Structure prediction request, 116 residues.
Amino acid sequence: MITGIHTLIYSKDAEKDRAFFRDVLGFKGVDAGEGWLIFALPPTELGVHPTDGEGSHELYLMCDDVEKTIVELKSKGVECSDVHNAGWGLLTTITLPSGGKLGMYQPRHALAIEKH
Prediction:
């Protein structure tokens, strides 16, 4: 039936953001042709939240230790926002090379994935 999930990030500078995922985050990937990189992602989980408005989609990176991960990312020149305790996790925002924002958090909720 379902064999995977293909997630998209729309970017004003896709080439720089692809390089970020490859070189800074170290995600392995393949060239699908003409420089279009498709990355393998770490284990993933999906939450479905209720809304009164139109449905939308969000993407967050997860980490075991948000403070340590921020230090590692900042050493590579990545801008991260201050950490916010959202209850369900410790949340920060990463600024991509294109200027786009991507959430990252240390979960404090039960996980559906196995940690390696």
User: Anything to note?
Assistant: The chain has a mean pLDDT of 93. Residues 14-44+56-107 form a domain with the 2,3-Dihydroxybiphenyl 1,2-Dioxygenase; domain 1 fold (CATH 3.10.180.10).
